[in-house]
Amino acid sequence: MSFNIIFFGPPAAGKGTQAKIIEQAHNLRQLSTGDMLRAQVAEGTELGLQAKAIMDSGKLVSDEIVIGMIADSMERNKKAKGFIFDGFPRTTAQAQALDAMLAERGEKIDMVLELQVDDSALLSRIEKRAKEEGRSDDTVDAMKVRLEQYRSYSAEVLPYYKTKEIVYGVDGMRSIDEVTIQIEAVLEQDEAA
Ligand code: AMP
Q1: Which residues, 6 or more positions from 76, have their beta carbon under 8 angstroms from its beta carbon?
Q2: Is the CB of 173 inside a 6 Å radius of any atom of ligand 1?
Q3: Which of 8, 88, 158, 193 is an S-S bond match for 33, by CB 3.0 to 4.6 Å?
């Protein structure tokens, strides 16, 4: 039985941190389009070169690029029990493509976890992460754009899943452990996880 989750939330909400914890605990496979893009930039591939300027500005890279990366990763992980999609989908076209790719495997998105964090807390988390990880898009200017983008794409993508009644809110203002406990409680409602 498969189980596929989307971790949804603004930049620095803790999606990556929680996805890695839940990945281990439930033997799922985390697929982060942000991590995949940063790997391409680090390797200096053609795709990475194209994506870097867009990422640094805080805008979204094309649907074609991210859908292609997700399709490849799913193909390479045919035996996975399920996926945690982290930072994907961010547009309706991406959400529809994801549904189609999962349908080919006889699967679907079972749950969308929306990590909710206040803007002020996000800004201080970004400052901290900028010092620790040195991400080139963790700047005040890029963050403003990323938050605006989030507002607009969440208004587009969340309703797509809300009509399916699979969106669950998680209070992302709490400590890492407390957020994990909340996520586990939501997952327990669904025995397949
Ligand atoms: P993230 O690590 O998820 O915050 O992503 C970092 C940056 O990568 C974003 O600001 C976008 O420029 C790009 N990116 C990541 N995922 C996507 C996606 N699903 N669609 C479009 N752009 C994305």
Answers
A1: none
A2: no
A3: 88
